Please model this.
Amino acid sequence: MNRETAVAEALDLLDEVGLENVSTRRLAKRLGVEQPSLYYHFKTKKDLLAAMAEAAMAPHAHAALPEPGDDWRSWFLDNSRSFRHTLLLRRDGARLHAGSTPTGDLDRIRRKMTFLIASGVPERQAQMAMLAAGRFTVGCVLEEQADANAPNPENLPEDVPALDDEAAFEAGLALILGGLEQHTAAPDAAH
Model:
């Protein structure tokens, strides 16, 4: 057993039983090893969860970085959509990610920030917009994944509209982008 195999099996376990039921005991049983052997790779359950969160984010972490000349608005929207899509790939993906520190992704985050700033977005606003969009996305996915066990929308009273998670996400994302555009010095910010 190596670290990558343990993390992959832990993510499969997450998809099967949900975050609250992932344990080192269950993972060890799934791997056919004794629980203490997991401590060679993960000193604590928190270490295991951090490794799982990092691995679960791989699809977003490998998404194309912005290039000079790209429209920063389109990139900002696409980046947030990619993040949302990645969180939705795993059961409880948002809960797993919440509170994690993207230490393996710091270079990519710096490159994204450099792109926004070079596109005319003031540094402080770029930082706050990226943070706001990230937290908004995690919150949306937390709600969306929690709603998986919600009552069928067809059973709601007529005066209660069914929520379209994707439409709600896109509307909120557009509001964040609109606010960011208000602080941007780029000459084409009015578009």
About this structure: Residues 123-146 form the longest helix (24 residues). The chain has two domains: 3-56, 58-182.
